[in-house]
Amino acid sequence: MIKDRNELKWLRRSGDEWRWVQQYISRHADARMRGNTERFARRKVEGYDQVVVDIADFEQTTEGLKFVTRLKNALRQHRYRSASNSRKPCTFSLPNSTRANLSRLSKANWVTETAVITTLIDDAEWAARKHTEREKSFKTSLTLERKRSELALEAANAQLEQTMKHLERATEQLVMWELAMESEHPPFNGDQEKIRQEVEKRLKKVKTMNAIIALSYALPNEN
How many Å apart are CA 101 and CA 85, to the nearest integer? Predict the structure, then answer.
């Protein structure tokens, strides 16, 4: 029966670390330590409390204390390499000057060299992401502007078409009038300035439409 023991400060009850410790004991405890029939039988029972009992038994001897020390070190390495730790060891070479700068930054900011490298990479990734977002936003704005310009051009073309029809009708009436009067310059006793202003007003619409259409050819390419 498992006796009541205090929890191990270096072994978490939550998670499955206790299972890893039991496997380590089964694989690495020497024959003399595993030769105790009572302890071997208990190790058939899985659970955190069982691990606590086993560790307490090991610590009763000098050899057992050494084994527990090795177990703690192995567990520390296991945690470091564990995927749940969100870390993965990597090895790379740096120029001496870069290595010196890394050490200087570490000391100046009171952080580890790993933290310096992590911050630099994270900052670079953030800057790259922001650049991509700005580029995407610019392309979106350009696309919207092109669509607005295309809609404006369609409206201008429609208005120009109506203006041309009106001009065609006015020209037709002018020709009919000239033929009826048998003169290219029929007599007119009205205000010539008023006539000029009305002509300019009507032609202004045509000139505006032509300018809009010409501008459409200068629109930036979406790509």
Answer: 28
Q: Specify if 9 maps to a domain.
A: no
The 10s digit of each residue's pLDDT in 87-100 is 667 777 889 998 89
* Cα separation values, 162 from 12, 49, 173, 206, 209, Å: 83, 92, 17, 10, 11
**Could you tell me if 23 and 78 lie in one domain?**
yes
Which of 67-81, 108-122, 166-180 is least confident? 166-180
Q: Residue 127 belongs to what domain range?
A: 113-216
Q: What is the pTM of this model?
A: 0.38
Total residue length of the chain = 223
- Which of 85, 104, 121 lies at the terminal end of a domain, its last residue? 85
Percent of all residues in the chain with a pLDDT value above 90, rounded to a whole number = 5
Amino acid residing at 94? L
Say if CB 65 and CB 58 are below 8 A apart. yes
